[in-house]
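Entry 14. Structure prediction run on the chain below.
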Amino acid sequence: MKRKIFIFAAFSIALGELITGCRSSGKVDESVAAPPPARVEEEPDVNLIQVDQPERFTFVKAGRREELPELHATGVVSPDVEKSIPVISLASGRVVGIYAKLGDDVKKGQLLLKVLSNDIAAGFQNYNQAKADEVLAQKQLERAKLLYEHGAISLNDFQVAEDTEEKAKVSLETAAQQLRTMGADPKHNDPVVNIYAPSDGTIIEQNVVLSASVHTPDNQPNLFTIANLARVWILADVYENDIPMVKLGDVADVVLNAYPDRKFQGRVTNIGRVLDPNLRTAKVRIELANPGIMRAGMFVTATFYGQHGRIYSTVPASAVLHLHDRDWVFIPAGGGKFRRIEISGGKITNGTQDVMSGLLPGQEVVNDALALNAEHEK
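Output returned:
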């Protein structure tokens, strides 16, 4: 027992001296005491892939598409005011015949109606009197000329006869012109005047019926209005907040409600300067050619496009890989490798898909993304 105590005491003394010696030297081997450095292993890039024979896959450059902002407005087909011609009668009277009606297509010179007019009768009376006066003045001039040549009358009397005959000619021509202005023919003494179409077109307004009274244009609306509908106006209502999107000269698309599958193009020629106080809209005029199916009063939808829009990339639909509700494309990464990048896909039109973000126009992508992904997963 005493021996064990002695051995323990000796070991304690030796251990104390060892510790005291280390402290006195001030040197500690930290490399022995510190743990080994941690080793961080990099995870492989899952979006970087490599396949056998990468040359089998072709590339295509992303295209560029600009989508302009669209503005839709309702409108109405209206005749071109510049090609709308009123039909009037300068002679008052009573309608005794109507040969065209509202909606009829007429040709220039076509008979529209007949008017029995007291104005025409009075005009022929004046014309016949002027004609008789001119005949008498002509005979007097011939007699005066003969007498003057034989010295029976003076030069002054001869000149008076010439002046009288000249005035008679002026009166006759004036009476004839008045008849022609009212639509009558001086060569045919008839109180019934014929009203003819002044141009080709369609009758879009009729304000006269058989046996109706016809007055002077000062106190009566047009008998007819003829419009050439080969070119029409579209009057669209655009709200005041949307007016900045519409510019003079812009191209607009027009779709008729009656023919929703057909689209026509026109050009903006006027933007109204006065707003409708109730609707807060301005009238925007679009001019376009009529293909023959547009009728005055038809409802349409007009589409206007802004000056600047958003730029999108476009790629073939086969270049986009749809995986886990996300869209991807493959781009070359060099060394026969490919990198998979995520994109935001848009609508598909005729085999071409829009890329909203993630890809720039001009970048190369693999044309067949599904085949490349299947080759990689083998």
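The chain is about 25% helix and 35% strand.
Filed with the rest of this week's runs.
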